[in-house]
Amino acid sequence: MKIINAASETPGMTKEEAEKFLESKLNLQLATVDERGDPNIQPVWFYYDKDKEKLWINTSKSAKKTQNIRKRSTIYFSIDDENPPVRGVKGKGVANIIEDLDIVGPLGDKISLKYLGTLDHPIAKMISEESKKGEVVLIEINPKFYSTWDYGKMQF
Q: Considering the entire predicted model, what is its pTM?
C-alpha cells in the first residue's frame, strides 16, 4: 500500500493507522466520470479487504456509477471523519465491475454486517435478495495510492 501525505504541512497516517481507519463505518465518496466528462460523486458503504488491499462497494447493476465505471475505470475516492480530530484517506484507483454471484453475495453480506451489524435488518435482506437476482454488482477498487491526513497529530 503506497501512502502519501495529503499536504506537506499536515501530518499523515501510518499504514497501520490508514488500515484501521478504512475499517471504520464512515461512507466512502466515490467519484466517477460520465460520458460527457462530468463528475458524478456518490456516498457509498464499502468494505476494505486488508489482505488484498482492495475496497469493495455493492450497488445496483443499473446505477450511474456502474455505467460510468464500465466506460471509464479510473475513479477517485475519499473517506473522511469531520469530527475532531479531522482525518481521512483519499486516493485514485482502477475499478472493476464484478457480477459473479459467488462473490457478490458474500461480499455484500460483509458490507451489510459492517454498517448494520446484522443480516436480519430489512436493508440487508433487500440487498441479499437483489444480489441473488443478479441485480446487484460489486465494484472492486484497486487503489494506486492512499493520500492521508490527520489533524490530531498537529502541534499547536
A: 0.91
